[in-house]
Amino acid sequence: MNNFLQELDSIFLIKNSSFGSSVKILSRKSFTAYIVPMGVWFFAWLISMAISGFLGFLMTLAGVYIFLHIRSYVLFMDDKGLWVFRGVFSWQRGFYGVKWVDFDESLFYQNFASWALRSFTILVKNKYKKEVEIELKYMHDGDKVVHQINNFFLSR
């Protein structure tokens, strides 16, 4: 928890913010989130290297960006709500989420591949809008995370 707060503080996002003191990281993207984007990037990189070295260099930078963007997703909760942090560059970084007073339920989708690879889609609904506020695909141990979220909400 302290490492996460220090990381956020180092990128100037938590100073003078309204996050509570009990920040708990719940999940990050699973390795399965990288497979398709990085596979597509690899084939595009091969083609760009065949065309031009400079184009290959630009595609390498694009691959690094894709990797860092996927890695930036973090699902966490505090005493005020459930939040998602994401973004690579300072103008992209940000939070979105649901406050506990607006929280309805959290769900996960499971099929054989997600069960075998421990990578689930997490949905968090708003009780007033009856809409999905947070939808995160390929989250590591999403089934356990959903149980944690719902149990924490029920114990409040």
How would you describe what is shown here?
This protein is α+β, with helices and mostly antiparallel strands. It has two domains: 2-29 and 73-155, PH-domain like; 32-66. Helix content is 44%, strand content 29%. The protein has five helices and seven strands. It has helices at 2-10, 32-51, 53-71, 112-117, 142-155, and strands spanning 24-28, 74-77, 81-86, 94-99, 103-109, 119-126, 132-140. A four-stranded antiparallel sheet has the order 1-2-3-4. Strand 6 and strand 7 (132-140) form a beta hairpin. Helix 2 (32-51) runs antiparallel to helix 3 (53-71). The longest helix is centred in the N-terminal third of the chain and has 20 residues, at 32-51. The radius of gyration is 18 Å and the shape is elongated. Mean pLDDT is 86; it is low at 9-16.
Q: What attributes characterize this protein structure?
A:
single chain; 156 residues; alpha+beta; PH-domain like; 2 domains; 4-stranded antiparallel sheet; 3-stranded antiparallel sheet; 5 helices; 7 strands; 29% strand; elongated
The coarse silhouette is elongated
Beta-strand content:
25-35%
CATH class of the largest domain: Mainly Beta
CATH architecture of the largest domain: Roll
Q: Total domains, how many?
A: 2
On the 0 to 100 scale, the average pLDDT is: 86
Distance between the termini: 21 Å
Widest β-sheet, arrangement of strands: 1-2-3-4
According to DSSP, the number of beta strands is 7
Secondary structure elements and pairings:
Layout: H1 2-10, E1 24-28, H2 32-51, H3 53-71, E2 74-77, E3 81-86, E4 94-99, E5 103-109, H4 112-117, E6 119-126, E7 132-140, H5 142-155
Antiparallel strand pairs: 1-2, 2-3, 3-4, 5-6, 6-7
